[in-house]
Specification:
The chain is of the alpha/beta class. It contains 15 helices and 13 strands.
Length: 363
């Protein structure tokens, strides 16, 4: 049985993408270990079909954290029997590379995002320079790899000549509960990080007569709370924090509209195809998304969203209000979501994942 180790820097509990990948591989004959971070607030891990390991660190953020975590990760992997090691994004790529060299095993790069294209990286010159050096040095050394959108795969090919597969972060098809009562609120789910357009979305609530429910957490949470206060919309924003995948699935089916907006700041946002786009589709939620290449590509095929060109607060408000008051358009988008989920689902996408790993082990 082939043994695959996946490495991330987050808390494993809420990483739906890695749970899907690891479960699919474990169900198809691989032994899988997912390695992540142990935080003070981490809840006990649920039993899964794959193994899990959390690494505890003294530092929580910044260079000290990345240095400590990478060192601890290297020594954890050093004494394990491994056939393939897979780095998830740049922040674990160094120990995976050196372990693969030391043990003479296969190495894979799973680019969940274009890391050097994140706003929090691109807008900080010293940090940008640091991660760009790692990307330029490491990515060409990872012959095997995959990413979440064709646009990002094309960008890796343009930069480094690597031919990475595309395995989209798509939701597993499960029974849609038509008995869950709907409620009139807007839903944002996912990371509360920079470049998610909260600086524009929160002011837009002044012209919207619906509550915004935010399910998630991240490095922008402090600023988000201040934005809510500064705009006087405390009664229109409900911060739910992190929810388990099961809780989020039930909750998302109650919403009226999903929000998948982002700033065009940092090439990663422009090329990305985040999991919440598919989560909304699977919950039967019409959504507001950006007029970015990957959204356009899918919307041309299924029409599940209204796309906007920018994040001007008044434009956001007008688009939300128009959609929620246009019953014909709203119902058409909802019906299209229910059709699209039969095609855009993990049961179909995992076939690409299994083909990829089979091809890696056959070489």
């Amino acid at each position: 049985m082939k043994r695959i180790y996946f490495t991330v820097t987050n808390d494993l509990t809420y990483d739906q993408r890695m749970h899907r990948i690891c479960t699919s591989l474990a169900e198809n004959g691989y032994w899988v270990m997912l390695v992540g971070l142990k935080l003070p607030a981490s809840v006990p891990l649920n039993p899964e079909k794959f193994s899990q390991k959390r690494i505890r660190c003294l530092f929580r953020a910044g260079k000290a954290f990345y240095a400590e975590y990478n060192i601890r990760l290297f020594f954890f992997l050093l004494f394990k029997k491994i056939d393939t090691v897979c780095a998830i994004d740049l922040d674990t790529i160094l120990p995976c590379y050196y372990i693969s060299r030391w043990k003479r095993i296969r190495r894979i790069y799973d680019a969940h995002e274009l890391f050097t294209g994140l706003k929090e990286v691109e807008t900080r010159p010293r940090i940008k320079k640091f991660w760009t050096r790692i990307e330029k040095r490491m990515v060409p050394k990872f012959r095997f790899g995959y990413t979440v959108s064709q646009s990002i795969a094309d960008e890796f090919n343009r930069r480094y000549g690597v031919q990475y597969s595309v395995i989209r972060n798509i939701t597993r098809l499960k029974e849609f509960d038509t008995m869950i009562p709907s409620e009139k609120f807007l839903l944002y789910q996912g990371a509360v990080n920079e470049a998610r357009a909260f600086e524009h979305l929160i002011p837009a609530l002044k012209w919207i007569d619906y509550k915004l429910v935010i399910c998630g957490d991240g490095n922008f949470m402090g600023q988000l709370k201040q934005l809510v206060k500064n705009n006087g919309v405390e009664n229109k924003v409900d911060l739910k924090g992190m929810l388990s995948p099961g809780e989020l699935w039930v909750f998302s089916q109650k919403a009226a509209l999903g929000l998948c907006i982002a700033e065009n700041t940092g090439i990663n946002q422009y090329l990305a195809l985040p999991n919440k786009f598919f989560d909304y589709i699977h919950a039967g939620l019409p959504q507001i998304a950006m007029n970015f290449p990957e959204y356009v590509r899918i919307n041309q095929q299924f029409e599940v969203a209204v796309l906007i060109a920018d994040t001007d607060p008044k434009r956001i408000a007008d688009t939300v209000n128009n959609l929620l008051h246009d019953d014909v358009l709203y119902n058409r988008l909802r019906e299209n979501c229910l059709k699209a989920r039969q095609v855009l689902n993990w049961q179909q996408e995992e076939k690409k994942l299994l083909d990829f790993y089979q091809s890696v082990f056959n070489q």
